[in-house]
Give the backbone structure.
Amino acid sequence: MNDSDKILTLKEMIKTTNRICVFTGAGISCPSGIPDFRSANGLYNDKTKGMYSPEQIISHSFFVDKPELFYDFYKNKMMYLDAKPNDAHIYFAELEKQGKQVSVITQNIDGLHQMAGSRDVVELHGSIHRNFCMKCHKAFDAAFVKNSAGVPKCTECGGIVKPDVVLYEEPLDDVATYKAIQKISEAETLIIIGTSLVVYPAASYVRYFRGKNFVLINKSSTPMDSSADLAIYDDIVNVVHQL
Ligand code: ZN
């Protein structure tokens, strides 16, 4: 199938089904200026922190042992408060407004799907926009964390304010996992966007899909391409501009 036939096929799949589940990874937020930390030029190759790899820094044990360094990295490399939803985020929010039952499952922590207007969003890895005092559980917004000097401390009790983001060594939230599997299993069309699918848990969730159309949209090939009904190798913003 050539590229224009693929776009026509995708259009038809979206047009002829109502329950559409969109599973997104870093690739959908790249066009919004948020780097993919697993790509060659992304965060994981950042050399500025010397002896610690980004994987080490954003782990639970590192957060406990060296909170100053954790927050220095987190605030500078993972919080993009000026980022705006791009045309891909907006496309799926619009599809929902047009009456489709669109559910979004995302591995991203940037909140851009909700900012675009999507109402049914499962955040598997949490969100930079939710932060809680570890002692009294008072809630704080992302700007509070970003603008705090050093380790953010609770204004009520002085406890450390921790982002509601799943760090390495931490389990995924049970409710989010359950919802994600439920939405995948109920969908007629499943569109996986901007994730290599090698990272847990995306690959293991796909087997719950019982619908008609399994679509992959990614800049490069993924290990699941052969089981997809349609695989498109392009930037998602380029794709939605043709829909
Ligand atoms: Zn507190």
Strands lie at 19-24, 101-106, 121-123, 126-133, 139-140, 161-165, 189-193, 213-218, 230-233. The chain is about 35% helix and 20% strand.
